[in-house]
Specification:
Length: 374
């Protein structure tokens, strides 16, 4: 049964309870409240796929809206700067937006044609001039209204470098040089350390405060299960909860998968979840995880990353990096490079000095299965 099921096992969907993120949410909320001088006024959220970056961004957006701020929530892909300029113009357009809420009046005459006539610094493209000018105009108006604009940019790892550079230069200008109330929170996979954040032309992003969206503690994981169940009239036994917490390993997406399928497995709705329900929930979650999480990670991994992972899958439990070095016929520094890469990708984790294990319990069986593609 799934009628009242509170769990949300979909990427980008806000969970019923955003557990374990009060630290980062408090910091970002405080930054919005105190203004451009606050170090977290421009921030980055970094974490593996399924860690809860988008869910955290959603919560920050909600915080901003509740304080009367304007919000632009975009992803980094494609022609980012044009989309942003259009979104800023739409917010600046006066009248009412699609949801019937009043827009800011006062800069409705703000026109692209007019703005293009501004002197453009050498080497700066037309889009950047346009984005900068519409942001400056909106930012100045917001200053007088004592509110701000929050721009969130998800999936930073998918951005086009020239677009990200343009965006970064523009934002640096409006937030740092002009001190306009335009806050920024970006989110991306840890791979941005090797791409976007290594691009010396994007120092703005490097200077943003960095918040790791890491795995949840056991206590936060227990809250993520127990609170929504109780809030929806259900119950869960202590041993069932312990089992759910243990198996999800602090991985938020797994919490939602296990919660959702355990709820469905129960014979009543709202359920009184016992170990048997949670066990079927776990089995179903583990059946789905490869397709939803492991395969996308695998597709983005290099040939060497994959050989490393396959060499680990020969073991039934943890693997020692010394064994990997022998199996792959490589030096320990080579092994340690790939070990770090796979840890940052969220595919494996360290279990102590010189030992690694797959981040998800379902990984080994999936890697060993003959029908895995590719
Ligand atoms: N703090 C949290 N507590 C419980 N569930 C969470 C939490 N953060 C995210 N989730 C859930 O985990 C899944 C992945 O979250 P998402 O924000 O899409 O991850 P990411 O953007 O990092 O890939 C979603 O189903 C979401 O509802
Ligand atoms: Mg996301």
């Amino acid at each position: 049964m799934a009628n009242g099921n509170p769990f949300k096992p979909s990427f980008g969907a806000s969970p019923p309870v955003l557990a374990g993120r009060t630290g980062v949410l408090d910091a970002l909320g405080e930054a919005l409240d105190s203004g451009t001088g606050h170090p977290d006024f421009t921030s980055l959220l970094v974490g593996v796929r399924g860690a809860g970056k988008t869910a955290t961004l959603n919560a920050v957006q909600e915080y901003a809206r509740n304080r009367g701020w304007l919000v632009i929530a975009e992803t980094a892909h494609g022609d980012l700067c044009n989309r942003l300029a259009a979104a800023v113009l739409e917010l600046s357009g006066g009248g009412h937006d699609r949801g019937g809420r009043p827009r800011l009046a006062g800069i409705s005459a703000l026109g692209v044609g007019v703005e293009f006539t501004r002197a453009s610094p050498v080497g700066v493209g037309a889009t950047e001039v346009r984005l900068r000018s519409v942001l400056t105009d909106l930012g100045s108006l917001l200053t007088s209204e004592r509110i701000g604009l929050l721009i969130t940019l998800d999936e930073l790892q998918g951005g086009e470098p020239p677009e990200l550079r343009e965006f970064a230069t523009t934002l640096q200008h409006v937030t740092r040089r002009e001190s306009l109330p335009i806050a920024f929170v970006g989110a991306g996979l840890p791979s941005i350390d090797d791409t976007v954040l290594r691009d010396s032309a994007i120092t703005f992003l490097q200077r943003c405060s960095r918040h790791e969206i890491a795995e949840l503690s056991d206590a936060a994981t227990a809250t993520a299960f127990a609170e929504p169940i109780a809030a929806h009239g259900g119950r869960i036994s202590d041993d069932a909860l312990r089992r759910a917490v243990e198996t999800s390993n602090g991985y938020p997406f797994m919490v939602q998968l296990i919660g959702f399928h355990s709820w469905r497995a129960a014979s009543s709705d709202p359920p009184n979840l016992q170990i048997a329900d949670v066990s079927s929930g776990i089995a179903e979650a583990e059946r789905r995880l490869p397709h939803l999480v492991l395969a996308p990670m695998w597709r983005s991994m290099s040939g060497v990353d994959r050989r490393f992972a396959l060499a680990m899958a020969q073991d039934d439990g943890e693997t020692s990096t010394a064994d990997l070095s022998k199996r792959l016929g490589r030096s320990s520094s080579y092994i340690s490079t790939y070990r770090s890469r796979l840890i940052r990708a969220g595919f494996i984790r360290s279990t102590g000095h010189g030992r690694v294990e797959f981040a998800h319990q379902a990984t080994r069986a999936w890697l060993r299965s003959p029908d895995r593609t590719p």
